[in-house]
Amino acid sequence: MPGPASRTAADATPAPHDLPTLNGSTIALHPLRAQDAPRLVAAAADGELWDLKVTVVPGPATVDAWIARALDGVRAGTVIPFTIRLRERDRVVGSTRFWKVDRENRKLETGSTWLAASVQRSIVNTEAKFLMLGYAFETLGCVRVQFTTDVLNAKSRAAILRLGAKEEGVVRRERIMPDGRKRDSVRFSIIEDEWPEVKAGLLRRLQAGS
């Protein structure tokens, strides 16, 4: 499904100096910047998320390298990273990103998503996914958006299925985690033909505040 004015991902993927801000009712997704480090650490401290074994969350000792790696991806044109902020107080409550951006095949992956404990199981993640999927399908003109999560992360797997994504299978030893564990991952996707139904479902959830 082409985006506005038949833009493709190759045409529409923003340059590093022109990353988008995606505004919702409750949250806004702002382009990740080096100066966001203290606010990200504060968000991760809400639940001590850097102790999680199923995803990589930056802590005081790792945040600068974590941001630098993301910004290297921005310069390479393969990553579009965001901070997640509550609009009412401009409080950073987590991070998410597009990565594996493939302009030629008009596809990408959403991932590296984490949220402060106080906003988990709230409207925040629903609205973040609504904003990102809308941008991917309707502005970048993607034909596929994929999701990959740790096979051990039952909470994340359930959340992705609730979006309306289709489970495609297990990718064995898909990556090595910081603690050395060889991770098996589960892959899901939404394709362009499915986006209208997924969008309608997300809108219903947003209207219900869930």
Description:
- The chain has a single domain, classed as Gcn5-related N-acetyltransferase (GNAT) (Aminopeptidase), CATH 3.40.630.
- It is built from six helices and eight strands.
- The chain has helices spanning 9-12, 37-45, 63-76, 123-139, 154-163, 195-208; strands at residues 22-23, 27-31, 80-86, 91-102, 107-115, 144-150, 166-176, 182-191.
- The protein is globular and about 45 Å long.
- With 210 residues, it is of the alpha+beta class.
Features:
alpha+beta, globular, disordered N terminus, GNAT family protein, EC 2.-.-.-, transferase
How would you concisely characterize the structure shown here?
This protein is an alpha+beta fold and 210 residues long. The protein has 6 helices and 8 strands; from the N terminus they run αββααβββαβαββα. The chain has helices at 9-12, 37-45, 63-76, 123-139, 154-163, 195-208; strands at residues 22-23, 27-31, 80-86, 91-102, 107-115, 144-150, 166-176, 182-191.
Number of strands: 8
Radius of gyration: 16 Å
Task: Report on the biggest sheet.
Answer: 8 strands, mixed
Tell me the quaternary state.
single chain
Secondary-structure blueprint of this entry?
Blueprint: H1 9-12, E1 22-23, E2 27-31, H2 37-45, H3 63-76, E3 80-86, E4 91-102, E5 107-115, H4 123-139, E6 144-150, H5 154-163, E7 166-176, E8 182-191, H6 195-208
Parallel strand pairs: 5-6
Antiparallel strand pairs: 1-2, 2-3, 3-4, 4-5, 6-8, 7-8
